[in-house]
Amino acid sequence: MSLMLPPMPRPRYLAALLLAVVASRGCLAQPLFAPPILSPNASSVWTTGSVQSVRWDNGGLDIPPNKHGEVVLGYYDPLDEDPGVGHEYYGQPLANGFLISDEVVNVVVPDTVPSGHYYYILLLGDVRNQSAVFSINNPASPSTSTANLTFPSTISAGSAPSATVSHWSPSVTGTATSAATTSSSGNTSVTATATQTKGTSGGRKLSVDCISGFFLGFMFAVLPLLAL
What is the rounded distance in angstroms from the CA atom of residue 184 to the CA atom of residue 201? Predict the structure, then answer.
C-alpha cells in the first residue's frame, strides 16, 4: 500500500522545497574537519616560556589551501566537581592567522600556568580538534600536588618564531620530496580569560549554520504538509 500525501498546491510546495534547500546551505558550504593533532601528545612535556610546535595531519581531508586557523590552550581542573569540564583561553589564542594547510605552527608556552598533566590544545578555524592531555612544567611552580592547585584566570602569550613547513609529495621515482616554506604564528602579547566548555575531541562536527539549516528546512518543507 502506497502512502498518499494530501494534495498541496504546486506553487506553495515548490516554494517550501526551495526554502528548505536554501536554509540547509550551511551543511553544504561550511564543513568542519577534525585533523588528528600529532603534537602535543600524551607523552609531551612543555616548559613554560619555551617555543613548541603544534602539528596536525590533514591527510585524507579536503581542506582548502587558503583557510586560516588558531590554536587555543585549555586545561582540566582535577578539583572541579565535574573534572570533564574543560577551561579554554579563547580570548587569547597561542597562535592565529596561520594556514591550516601548513600542518604546523609554533607557540610560546605561557609562563603563569602551574606544573601538571592537565593541558590540551584546541585547533580551531574551519577545522576543530582537541589534542591528548599533556604536561606543562613550570620551574617557578614545580609541585604537581593538587592540594593547593590554582590555575590563572588570565594568561599572557608571547610571539613565537615562524615554523618550518614541509609539504611532502611522491616524486617520479616514488621517493618523498619536500618543499620548505615558513608560517607565521601570529601571536600577540595580551591576556585572556579562561572559559568553560565540556571537553570533546575528534569526529566530524556540525556547525551552528548546519543545525539551524536542518531545523528551518523541516519548518518550511514538512510543517506545511502537516497543516493540510
Answer: 26
- Detail the DSSP E strand segments found in the chain: 37-39, 45-47, 51-56, 68-76, 85-88, 95-99, 104-108, 116-124, 129-130, 134-137, 154-156, 163-170, 176-183, 191-193, 195-198
What span, in angstroms and rounded, lies between the C-alpha atoms of 174 and 185?
33
The whole-model pTM stands at 0.65
Compute the distance between CA of residue 96 and CA of residue 71 in angstroms, rounded to an integer. 6
The count of other CB atoms within 10 Å of the CB of residue 122 is 25
* pLDDT means over runs of 10, the chain (228 residues): 56 55 49 87 97 95 89 94 89 93 96 94 89 95 79 86 67 37 43 48 42 56 56
